[in-house]
Amino acid sequence: MAQAREIQVGMENSPLYIHEHHDVCDPITGRVMTGSWVWDSALILSHYITTRAYHEHDFSLQGKTVLELGAGLGLPGLTASKLGARRVILTDLGPLLQGLRHNVDANRLSDRVEVCELVWGTNELPNQLKGSKGGVDVVLMSDVLYDPSLMGPLAKTLNMVCGSETLIWSASEVRDSTSECLCQLTSHGFEVTELPKQFIQHSLCDMETSNNNHIDNFGVYLIRPLKQMCSP
Ligand SMILES: C[S@@+](CC[C@H](N)C(=O)[O-])C[C@H]1O[C@@H](n2cnc3c(N)ncnc32)[C@H](O)[C@@H]1O
Q: What is the pLDDT of residues 107-131, one digit of tens each?
């Protein structure tokens, strides 16, 4: 059953229409897939990329190529498209792709937003990303930092798509496993910087999150391949 939500993410009079499909199940386990609904981290990341704090640091999305990993319903990627990204690629596990395409169409963004399957750690990137090393300007990831055992595969995928200038933005609910996930990414060659909480305060005040709505419960991170830090 799909439930439509109209979500305002900082851009006045320009809501996004997101359909949550609560009945998308993993064909092997039969469990409802976690990408079937919008997580608060997706709201926070989407709000954050619309803020002055984001744009003042010259992180504009205008004309950029943006990849979203573990996109679920695709809210941050769709927001990036509305903010002027030239090309957005929303990726997740196979059963979630139909819902992602539905949300692209619902927002009339199919001329700029593509959807494809991307399982972290795969040896072969989807056609949409083949030869893309360095061609992805920004990677968005919301609520994917929960299982340390998935961080190796995630880092492998990031290494395959990121060039020396790529910026990775990740928002996460802070759980017991979050710091271990961040350590894993660091050990796989990424530098992680947590944004000062005031940068997300505005987003939290402004939006309809669940009851867990307290600034200490969330983190927004800028993640970069370490080799970027060595380049002049
Ligand atoms: C907690 S949900 C977050 C969904 C969405 N980003 C949001 O914030 O609303 C985690 C997402 O990561 C995806 N995911 C988990 N493991 C994955 C893997 N190995 N490869 C690709 N995606 C994966 C899930 O399918 C799910 O969409």
A: 999 999 999 999 999 999 999 998 7
The ligand 1 atom nearest the CA atom of 33: 25
Lowest mean pLDDT among 112-116, 126-130, 138-142, 143-147: 126-130
Q: Ligand 1: does its nearest atom lie under 6 Å from the Cβ of 34?
A: yes
CA of 184 to the centre of ligand 1 (A): 17
Ordered by start, the domain boundaries in the chain are 2-230
Query: What distance in angstroms lies between residue 231's CA and the mean position of ligand 1's atoms?
Result: 31
pTM of the model: 0.93
Burial 26-62 (b: 16+ CB within 10 A, else e): eeeeeeebbbbbbbbbbbbbbbbbbeebbeeeebebe
Sign of the torsion angle spanned by Cα atoms 219, 220, 226, 232? negative
Residues in contact with 13: Cβ distance below 8 Å, sequence separation at least 6, in sequence order: none
User: How many Å lie between the centroid of ligand 1 and the Cα of residue 93?
Assistant: 8
CATH number of 2-230: 3.40.50.150
Helices 178-187 and 151-161, packing angle to 10 deg: 50
Nearest to 75 by CA among 47, 34, 114, 116: 47
DSSP symbols for 22-37:
TT-B-TTT-PBPGGGS
Identity (one letter) of the amino acid at 98?
Q
